[in-house]
Amino acid sequence: MPERSPGFHNVAVVAHPQVVDATLEAEQIAAYLNAHDLQAIHGLLYDDSLRQRIQAGEYDLVIALGGDGTMLRAGHLCAPAGVPILGINMGRFGFLTEVRQSQWKEFLPRLLVGDFWLEKRMMLIAEHWRGETHIGTWDALNEVIVARGLMVRPVRLRADLDGRFLTTYVADGLIASTATGSTAYALAAGGPILPPELRNILLIPVAPHLSIDRAIVLAEGATVCITVQADYQAVLCVDGQTPVEFANTDRVDIHAGDHTAQFVRFQDPDYFYRNLTPHMNRNPSTGNPQ
């Protein structure tokens, strides 16, 4: 059964700075919540001061206005602090958001009386190593990708599972994805769609050449190590953020993280399958008539 909550008291309403009208909408939502006896503020998603206050646990809910990219960034911010997120879609797709821009006045009264549930989604942790030197660590809600850089040629990627050799891919890249990310890049690369509550790791090659071309589903407790075996540029990219250059023999260790993203849901728990086909048939990125 989904977990229900008695309600929230301190709310941060954050807007993506590049989404048209998001700042104005955030101000109106904060005013609505304040008028209904909640303590709400509004600001920009990348405002350092506001981010520090969220990370310090000053708020028990973040309302994020934007698209799926905004939800990913909000997940990175809120999951370590255990703060749930309500997504209001002002972007193009809205796979992760819950409420359309025109609907928030309809759904916020339900928020006020605790008529919602919290959906929990596994995140990954990725650790970049160069020999015995630790380069960096990232949380991922969608996926971790090791891929070729500017040179248009496949890259050799060794994959080890729980310390044992699995296989070597010759491919444009290798994706380690969560169930959340199974409907993102992993889907485009031919991977299966997983329901969001699953705590598995997907391993999917991108354009493999004469190597394993099937997705592999790993258990939650698995650790996969991806090592670059190429003397030309490769990159690491986490949830679509700025790529990090990989040198030959660099590796990334990927496993289930300690943090969990929590999304506020008003729909019943079967919403994912009900919404799946409409989402697939109405990708606005295609430019097809809706």
Would you give an account of this structure?
By secondary structure, the chain is an alpha+beta fold. The protein has two domains: 135 residues, Probable inorganic polyphosphate/atp-NAD kinase, domain 1 (Rossmann fold, 3-Layer(aba) Sandwich), CATH 3.40.50; 136 residues, Probable inorganic polyphosphate/atp-NAD kinase, domain 2 (Tumour Suppressor Smad4, Sandwich). The protein is 20% helix and 39% strand. It contains six helices and 18 strands. Strands 1, 7, 8, 10, 11, 15 and 18 form a seven-stranded antiparallel sheet that branches. A hairpin with a 5-residue loop joins strand 16 and strand 17. The protein is elongated and about 60 Å long. It starts with a strand and ends in a 9-residue tail after the last helix.
Q: Considering the protein shown, what is the CATH homologous superfamily of the largest domain? A: Probable inorganic polyphosphate/atp-NAD kinase, domain 2
N- to C-terminal distance: 35 Å
Number of continuous helical runs: 6
Radius of gyration: 20 Å
Mean pLDDT: 91
Strand-pairing-aware structural class: alpha+beta
**How many structurally independent domains?**
2
* CATH second-level architecture of the largest domain: Sandwich
